[in-house]
Specification:
104 strands, 11-stranded mixed β-sheet, 9-stranded mixed β-sheet, single chain, 24 helices, mainly beta, elongated
Length: 1869
């Protein structure tokens, strides 16, 4: 359990404020003092009870309790003694009773004069004169501080300060008590003399973009010179990260040394240092006007001596001005080294000249490293040098024992100071670990052996290192020393000067509980008072990452004094920033793309307040992870092997490994192979010729996903011989393994080799190809062996065979040893009788089934070849696999039978018989076909039989039909750039692997065998998205086709056939006549097709539709029977699957084609969707589809209608697509309902009826909807994927523009997104896209609404009308043709999609739309800004437009009642941190659209605005907890329905409460009580309500709903009732408020406990509730100390002690944490201000005589903050600083900040204190201001005042017309 306790601390900060044209400079000094009292002389008392609300509770609950940083204590049971002690105490959320900044020791000679007891003075008894301005705890006992040691020869103090602080005589000095001395146990006799040393540390105080070299000299008893290189400092880098570098001069002889430091362009810094047996560290800042304290401060190095004269003056400024004007570059003038001499350099020098004051460092006293003997215990291993640790260079330590570092296995280091029995005097030590180290020290302790009064004692300092926590040891040592964590360093304070002999450091735990510990620095300090407490940088802490699927959520602790947080996200070189005011942020996108699971995102968080930033936290890793098991893998495919199966599948999202399940088809259970990391697996050791079923699953850390579709395949038998034909065989069989007859020789060339051939003993021999033995074969490890790329005339490449004689050769058959794919290329050469090599023409290669699950190939000759020697080659299409094998080759004599049958026809389509063909001709050919040769029929008998049968049909005039005339307009050539289009033209044929197809191609003027511009496309029915089709090039004439299997899924293989035309689409038909290809298919099964492409005649369209419906009805009536007959009853194993409902039957197909769409879907589902009146409904649905696509395309600027004379270039880029979209029946991948991929849109079985049930939209002439409906959101969504413009396409967003367009009816409720979410986004000020894709869609829709003037369904007559009226038509047209965009600056489409969209949209609007896009989170780059700036800015607030406001404006002139008028009324009220605005207009309410609300903060006297929101309601609620303690007003602007603005009105200012109330958004409430209450579910339409069954909220949630009208009531028997609040993140908590409004039984006695883990609880408060006005706030304690404590907790448990069986009621429970800094002006009880004229001098520093002179105009106030890091500025109503003007014209004012006095020797000036401040102007100042307000600032560095940010302010108050006299009283030092 982390616990933070703190007490009120002492100290007084005096500040001199100088204001000039250069800005405001605050020079701060620290001293100590007691509370001051302020008396007024008009007899009126200031209200000392009306203090501001504290950190942890309301002012109502805290009035009578003890003050603390978190709030006032409330426990009335506290004893008087405890109250007395508490009144001396304050609370700090970072510290506990530990010294942080303690005054310097008094000189020993003065110690005797000190009073021993400083508690005797009680300022509460002082008389108050007239008007009292008291401290909030004026009755507190005041204790004195130690006297700060002053240097009377302090010559480095600025002259201005000397003048201001010169002591003046006063009438009455306040009584001053002597401060208590700091403890010391040092005897001079026991101390040894040390050797001196000097360390010089230079720190970069201003940004310089290059390394800086300094020469450091030391002159004295000895002389030394060193070079120091200070690394570059980036702009915006905080002081905590500012570069620094040091040099040391060790072992110096005592004496006076002169230090001088000089760098290029710097004034030489000099300082005398007296070395007297001690180490001295001098810090030097590069920068200006740094004023430290008398105890500790750095020196200053001033840069700007550009002329080298050794001084900084106007001559240097003039030189820089001359350099700027000349435009030349000289490095000496470039003060920030950014490569250019500019105003930044001049401003820096000017600032230095205005504020420079010689300031020398006050050295810190440290123990020189040389005086320390350091060693490690035997069990501690050291990586590096232990001595380097003393010089700040770091060391890594490791425990020698196994296991992590622990109390039983510690790291132990000893630091020995004893020499000759003497000790070393010191006051403390520092141990630092590297920032962000995983091996930093987390727990441990130090033992300090020291001497006191001649005795050797041991003290201990123990550190469970939690920020600000001091743990008191129970180890029983003499003294317990406090330990504090300061900016990652452990500071152990020895509570005074002691004589140390030895220090032992034990490390018992590291940050990551490892075996390593890292220490960057150990130092020992002689003077703790010189330490300034490290500033609270408010860097976010306890950052946690909760990963989820494609997202992660960040959470961190709330920081005080900040207004927002900035998050950086980095991946590789890419970085992105986000902003939020909350302490949590969910990240779903990076660079506008979804996050990827498993990707490492580096995240940092920093706090922000205006321009101030804290610096980023340490980096943490965020890795989105899956939240569910992976989906089923897709695309499982199997390739057969010999007793093996090669299985592959597609990559599956979120999968780590895969598992393959397999079994024989007849087996009952599967076997599996798990842990596969790739996408391929080879199953081996299977059975021969056996069918196996296979499926695949994917797994991740969450488990195994669902199975893929089951695939099946049959293994191959080991080298099963393919049965080759013997018809007319030449090389007849001569026995297995023997060379066949008539073969004289055989050889192979190139890389081919023979494998396992006994006949081939010499290289190049290939007799094994003719041995009737399939074990011997040829192998070439390539996809082609002289097939696709033959040797050419005279070459030799391929298989060469020589016969024993000349033969008339007509065919070659061959087979592979194992079927591995398909050969599609062949070439043949032969030697004629003259011995010349000739190329065989008109050859073809086809694959045929061998009948035993094997394939063979035929290379066929159209004409006979007389030869005795052949050379041939083969190759594969598609280059897969890259292996050519042949086991056996047969040579066949020529037979003219095939050509004789084919020659029956006279045309290429084989539709016309020769005139001489008779029945007898056909009979003769039939007889030849039925005749065997060598026991075998012609190998093409089946195919030739079909040709003869077709000839008989033609002879009998029956006709063949099914001829497709290829439409040459449907082509990609010259088509517009629109995605997703498909140019397949349906043949109405479905075919399967194993079907022998013949495709006939004809074209006028082309000869048979000529290449064509068309391809056959064959597809897989109901396929998965990938690899569902292949193409085959076609030639003129007869094309014999063997189809390959495209799928391994256990379903019918095969699908529809199409023709794809790849030719040109000429615009000049006379010069380039259109191709007139015609295609016919023989084989496969036919299905109905409706093709309406280009059919515009209504009669023809209706006729085609009528015919199609008749064919469809007839077809589906016989479909199942046809399946049973041809598929189940046929021989093709690829079709032998049950029909079921027809989902997988390839015959259940139909294609419907229009100009812009092709439906390729199941015929039965089309019939079902068309209903009873199929013909009418089909007409409607096709009309609706065409109308919808015309609407979509017009919004893309596409049409076929152009005005006469339109330039051809415009037509070519903006016509409608030639090809159409294709909606196909496909299998869905995991999680998909529909999808768009490549050239199609996939839908499933159940979606098909919806695609054919559209109804045309009817609209009026302006496009206003009347009736009808287009298709569902999904279809338009997928169409949008295909057609949205690629230049700016954003998946799942821009495509939805078309979905909205298809459905929106010009009302806000007809769009898919909520305008309230749109308004939240455009007023959020965040960069990046909206997290919700529908909200982001609103951006694109708003552009349509802003610039399209007609209703949504309006379409236009031609291209020019479209361009004139449709915004996105212009956008997309310019994307296709940027040269057409308007403007003098040419449109270029470089950069990402956002940059392209911003430019395109601005061109389309001819407006600069940068504000619109910035509101939507886009950031224009320089090129975009330059381009859009050529257009006038869009002044309308179009980011607020909605559908209904646009409709209101249609047909109306622009309204005038609101635009530019002062008609807004607005009032603001505040409750806690919630501001409610009541809004209205005095005129034009009918024209009102809504109100834009901006927050107005005043900072540096100037207004800063930020958009708070937009509402169309009359009220607006603003949650502003992030602006706690700030004053805010609201600027309200009315927006009319034309999006024009009214004049703005501004509300009265309100101050935001800073009570530290904790947000409840992430709370989870639980209780052991039961209740009869039920929470009504949200009303219909509320976004957070689910329509499915949802659990109702637990009644106890009423106690945390921030609603005072709801109360929880519950009870429990036999147990103490409790309520458990789970915060769901580590949160600082310090108080709980319990409210009960109305009737009900309150909780009485209570116990409050907190826990980090929900198991181990710590008591933080107990007592009895005493509700005052229905509520009470109780503050947490630690059980022993009297002050309020802050705890880190995740769980808070409130128990009603002893109240079992009672019905208890709770209206609300609130928790409070630390609040931020706050400033207020003091008021009297009568409400008058503590502003007036000082009656008498008030001396606030008796040592220096510094005082506030009588007659000064003073302003008094109170604050909560850290006086070491706070300053105040007063501004008047005009934003000018309140001050007086001196003789030089400089504005002056002075202030002091009073802190509570140190009351305990262990107390320190902590992070937060409470006190008073006084701001005064010199007597005689003419105060022209009528009103004033106060701004409170916090700085990061108390020495430099850098890192300034405003943390609180007050409202404007009116200065009294007559200033009353005021007297200040109180103790000072």
């Amino acid at each position: 359990m982390k616990r933070r306790c703190s007490r009120f601390l002492a100290g007084l900060l005096a500040a001199v404020m100088v204001v000039s044209s250069g800005g405001l400079e605050v020079a701060a000094r620290r001293s100590v003092g007691q509370w001051a009292e302020v008396d007024a002389e008009d007899g009126k008392n200031l209200d000392t009870d009306s203090k501001t609300e504290e950190d942890s509770g309301s002012n109502e609950d805290a009035k009578d309790s003890t003050t603390s940083e978190e709030g006032q204590k409330d426990d009335s049971s506290t004893s008087d003694e405890e109250n007395k002690e508490s009144n001396e105490s304050s609370n700090d959320d970072e510290t506990d009773n530990m010294p942080d900044e303690t005054p310097q020791k008094e000189d020993p000679a003065k110690e005797e004069d000190k009073k021993e007891d400083s508690d005797k003075t009680d300022t509460s008894d002082q008389d108050l004169e007239d008007k009292d301005v008291l401290d909030k705890n004026s009755d507190e006992k005041n204790a004195s501080d130690k006297d700060a040691e002053q240097n009377p020869a302090d010559t480095d103090k600025p002259s201005e300060e000397k003048k201001d602080t010169e002591a003046l005589p006063t009438e009455e000095e306040p009584e001053v008590e002597e401060p208590e001395e700091r403890a010391t146990s040092v005897s001079a006799n026991s101390l040894r003399v040390l050797e001196g040393s000097i360390e010089v540390r230079v720190i970069s105080g201003v940004p310089v973009n290059s390394d800086q070299t300094f020469e450091v000299k030391l002159q004295g008893p000895e002389d030394f010179t060193e070079t120091l290189v200070l690394p570059r400092r980036a702009k915006g880098e905080s002081d905590m990260a500012a570069p620094s570098e040091s040099v040391r001069f060790p072992r110096l002889t005592d004496g006076t040394y002169r230090l001088s430091v000089h760098g290029d362009g710097y004034l030489t810094y000099t300082q005398d240092i007296e070395v007297d047996g001690m180490g001295y560290r001098v810090q030097l800042y590069t920068g200006n006007a740094v004023v430290g304290t008398p105890e500790a401060r750095p020196g200053l190095l001033f840069r700007g001596d550009v002329n080298g004269d050794g001084k900084l003056d106007d001559a240097d400024a003039t030189a820089i001005v001359d350099a700027i004007e000349s435009g030349t570059y000289e490095a000496i003038y470039d003060l920030d080294k950014n490569g250019v001499v500019d105003l930044i350099d001049l401003n820096y020098l000017t600032d230095v000249l205005e504020h420079q004051a010689v300031q020398q460092a006050i050295p810190e006293k440290v123990i020189p490293p040389e005086e320390v003997k350091v060693s490690a215990s035997k069990g501690t291993l050291v990586e590096g040098s232990l001595e380097s640790m003393l010089e700040g260079k770091g060391v890594v330590l490791r425990s020698d024992a196994s296991g992590e570092i622990s109390a039983n296995n510690p790291i132990e280091l000893s630091f020995d100071f004893e020499k000759d029995h003497d000790s070393v005097a010191m006051e403390g030590m520092v141990v630092a670990s590297p920032k962000g180290s995983e091996n930093g020290i987390a727990e441990g302790y130090v033992l300090i052996v020291y001497e006191e009064n001649g005795q050797e004692l041991t003290g201990v300092g123990e550190f469970p290192i939690q920020e600000g926590l001091r743990a008191v040891s129970a180890r029983g040592y003499k003294k317990n020393f406090p330990v504090k964590l300061e900016n990652g360093s452990m500071v152990i304070d020895f509570s005074g000067l002691i004589a140390v002999k030895k220090v032992t450091l034990f490390v018992t735990k590291t940050s990551n509980t490892s075996n390593l510990a890292e220490i960057s620095r150990v130092e020992f300090l002689n003077d703790m008072e010189s330490r300034i407490p490290e500033p609270e940088m408010n860097i976010p802490k306890n950052i946690t990452v909760t990963p989820a699927n494609k997202m992660f959520t960040l959470q961190w602790d709330k920081e005080a004094n900040v207004t927002s947080y900035e998050i950086s996200i980095t991946v590789g070189e890419d970085i992105e920033y986000r902003r939020t005011t909350a302490t949590t942020l969910t990240i779903q996108q990076f660079k506008n793309d979804k996050l990827e699971n498993g990707t490492e995102y580096i995240v940092r968080v920093q706090s922000v307040n205006g321009e101030w930033k804290s610096g980023f936290s340490d980096a943490i890793k965020a890795v989105p992870k899956v939240d569910k098991v992976p989906p089923a893998p897709d695309h499982v495919k199997i390739m057969s092997g010999v007793r093996s199966l090669e299985i592959s599948w597609g990559e599956t999202e979120d999968a780590d490994t895969y598992t393959v399940y397999y079994k024989e088809a007849s087996a009952s259970s599967y076997e599996k192979v798990s842990g596969i990391t790739g996408l391929y697996y080879l199953l081996e050791g299977l059975k021969d010729d056996t069918t196996y079923q296979v499926y695949v699953t994917a797994s991740n850390d969450l488990g195994e996903g669902k199975p893929s579709l089951t695939a099946s395949e049959k293994t191959l038998s080991g080298l099963v011989a393919a049965k080759l034909p013997t018809y007319k065989l030449i090389n007849t069989d001569n026995g297995a393994g023997a060379l066949s007859n008539h073969i004289k020789s055989a050889s192979i060339t190139g890389s081919a080799v023979m494998v396992d051939s006994n006949l081939d003993t010499e290289a190049g021999s290939a007799l094994g190809l003719f041995d009737n033995n399939y074990n011997s074969y040829m192998e070439v490890k390539d996809w082609d062996y002289a097939g696709a790329y033959p040797a050419g005339a005279g070459g030799k490449k391929g298989i060469i065979v020589e016969l024993d004689d000349f033969y008339s050769v007509g065919m070659i058959s061959l087979a592979e040893p194992i079927d591995r794919g398909s050969y599609t290329y062949a070439s043949v050469y032969y030697w004629d009788k003259d011995g010349k090599q000739q190329a065989a023409s008109n050859i073809s290669i086809v694959r045929r089934s061998a009948g035993n699950n094997r394939w063979y190939y035929l290379i066929k000759f159209k004409e006979a070849v007389e030869t005795n020697k052949l050379m041939f080659g083969i190759g594969r299409y598609g280059s897969s696999p890259r292996l050519v094998t042949v086991s056996e080759v047969r040579i066949h004599e020529y037979d003219s039978l095939e050509q004789d049958i084919l020659n029956l026809y006279t045309d290429n389509l084989y539709l016309t018989l020769r005139e001489d063909v008779t029945e007898a001709t056909l009979d003769e050919l039939q007889e030849r076909l039925d005749t065997q040769n060598q026991g075998d029929y012609h190998p093409e008998k089946e195919m030739l039989q079909k040709e003869l049968d077709a000839a008989r049909k033609l002879l009998n005039t029956e006709g063949l039909g099914n001829v497709l005339k290829v439409n040459p307009r449907i082509t990609s050539h010259n088509d517009v750039a629109v995605g997703g289009r498909n140019g397949w033209q349906p043949l109405g044929v479905a075919a399967a692997p194993g079907d022998d197809l013949v495709v006939y191609v004809g074209r006028s003027g082309m000869k048979e065998g000529a290449n064509t511009s068309i391809q056959l496309v064959y597809t897989q029915y109901h396929a998965e998205a990938g690899g569902f089709f292949k193409t085959i090039n076609l030639k003129i004439g007869r094309n014999e086709i063997s189809l390959n299997k495209l799928s391994s899924t256990e379903a019918e293989k095969g699908g529809a056939l199409y023709i794809q035309y790849n030719g040109k689409n000429p615009t000049d038909k006379e010069k380039n006549p259109l191709d007139d290809y015609a295609v016919r298919v023989s084989g496969g099964g036919c299905f109905p097709v409706l093709n309406l492409y280009g059919v515009t005649d209504e009669t023809e369209r209706n006729s085609k539709i009528h015919t199609y419906v008749e064919e469809l009805n007839a077809y589906i009536g016989t479909l199942k029977a046809e399946h049973e007959s041809t598929h189940m009853g046929g021989n093709n194993e690829h079709l032998k699957f049950a029909y079921g409902n027809g989902e997988n039957c390839i015959l259940n197909s139909t294609d419907i084609v229009t100009d812009q769409m092709m439906l390729s879907v199941p015929a039965t589902q089309v019939a079902s969707g068309l209903g009873a009146d199929k013909e009418a409904n089909l007409k409607n649905t096709l009309q609706a589809m065409e109308d919808m696509l015309v609407l979509f395309y017009q919004h893309k600027g596409l049409t076929n209608s152009f005005a006469e004379g339109t330039d051809a270039a415009i037509i070519n880029k903006n016509h409608l697509p030639y090809r159409y979209l294709n909606i196909r029946y496909m299998r869905m991948f995991a999680g998909a309902f529909m999808y768009a991929s490549g050239n199609h849109i996939g839908i499933e079985w159940g979606s098909v009826p919806g695609v054919v049930s559209g109804v045309p939209i009817k609209a009026d002439a302006n496009g206003k909807y009347e009736s009808g409906r287009y298709f569902g959101w999904g279809i338009a969504h997928e169409i949008g994927h295909d057609i949205n413009e690629g230049a700016y396409a954003y998946a799942e967003v821009t495509n939805n523009y078309f979905s909205v367009l298809a459905q929106a009816k010009d009302t806000n409720d007809s769009v898919r997104f909520k305008y309230s979410n749109v308004y939240d986004k455009v007023t959020s000020g965040t960069t990046g896209y909206a997290s919700n894709v529908f909200t982001q869609l609103g951006m694109y829709w708003q552009l349509h609404l802003a610039y399209d003037k007609d209703y949504n369904y309006k379409t236009y007559g031609n291209y020019q009308e479209i361009m004139d009226n449709l915004f996105f038509a212009r956008v997309d047209s310019y994307a296709r043709n940027p040269a057409a965009a308007p403007g003098s600056i040419a449109l270029t489409l470089s950069g990402d999609r956002d940059q392209k969209l911003m430019r395109l949209a601005s061109a389309a609007a001819q407006k600069d739309l940068s504000e619109f896009f910035t509101r939507w989170g886009m950031v224009p780059d320089a090129d975009t800004q330059k381009y859009v700036s050529q257009f006038p800015k869009e002044t309308r607030a179009i980011y607020y437009v909605d559908d209904e406001s646009r409709v209101f404006t249609m047909g109306k002139s622009e309204g005038s009642a609101i635009k530019g008028k002062s008609i807004v009324t607005a009032t603001a009220s505040i409750q806690d941190s919630e501001v409610t605005l009541n809004l209205g207009v005095s005129a034009g309410s009918n024209e009102l659209h809504g109100y834009e609300i901006s927050r107005v903060f005043i900072e540096n006297g100037k207004a800063r605005e930020e958009i708070a929101g937009f509402t169309t309601d009359a009220t607006f609620t603003d949650q502003v907890a992030f602006a706690a303690n700030h004053v805010v007003s609201y600027k309200v602007t009315a927006i009319d329905k034309w999006m024009n603005r009214s004049l703005a009105t501004t509300t009265e200012a309100v101050k935001i409460g800073g009570d530290g109330k904790i947000d409840k958004s992430f709370w989870t409430m639980a209780t052991n009580m039961t209740s009869e209450q039920k929470i009504d579910p949200p009303k219909d339409g509320e976004e957070n309500w689910l329509s499915c069954e949802a659990e109702t909220l637990a009644p106890i949630s009423l106690a945390a709903d921030d609603d005072a009208t709801t109360t929880y009531t519950g009870s429990i028997k036999d147990a103490a009732p409790y309520v458990l609040i789970q915060l769901n993140q580590s949160t600082k908590v310090t108080a709980l408020r319990y409210q009960l409004q109305g009737s009900g039984t309150p909780i009485g006695k209570y116990l409050i406990e907190v826990s980090m883990n929900g198991e181990n609880y710590t008591k933080v408060k107990e007592g009895t509730f005493d509700l005052n006005n229905g509520s009470q706030t109780v503050y947490f304690e630690n059980g022993k100390d009297p002050w309020v404590c802050t705890y880190d907790a995740v769980y808070i448990k409130l128990t009603a002690v002893g109240q079992s069986g009672k019905e208890l009621s709770i209206t609300e429970l609130d928790l409070y944490g630390p609040s931020g800094d706050n400033v207020e002006l003091l008021e009297t009880k009568d409400g008058e201000l503590g502003i007036g004229k000082l009656s008498a001098d008030f001396v606030y520093d008796t040592k220096t005589g510094e005082k506030i002179p009588a007659g000064s105009i003073i302003f008094t106030g109170e604050y909560k903050g850290n006086p070491a890091y706070n300053v105040f500025v007063l501004y008047d109503e005009d934003g000018k600083i309140v001050g007086s003007t001196n003789a030089d014209g400089t504005l002056e004012s002075t202030q002091i900040i009073l802190a509570p006095e140190l009351t305990d020797e262990k107390a320190m000036l902590g992070e937060t204190s409470e006190g008073r401040w006084v701001y005064w102007l010199p007597s005689g100042t003419s105060l022209s201001s009528k009103k004033i307000r106060v701004e409170m600032y916090r700085v990061d560095n108390a020495l430099t005042n850098e890192g300034q940010r405003m943390v609180s302010d007050t409202e404007l108050v009116t200065i009294p017309t007559t200033l009353p006299p005021i007297t200040l009283k109180g103790s000072t030092q």
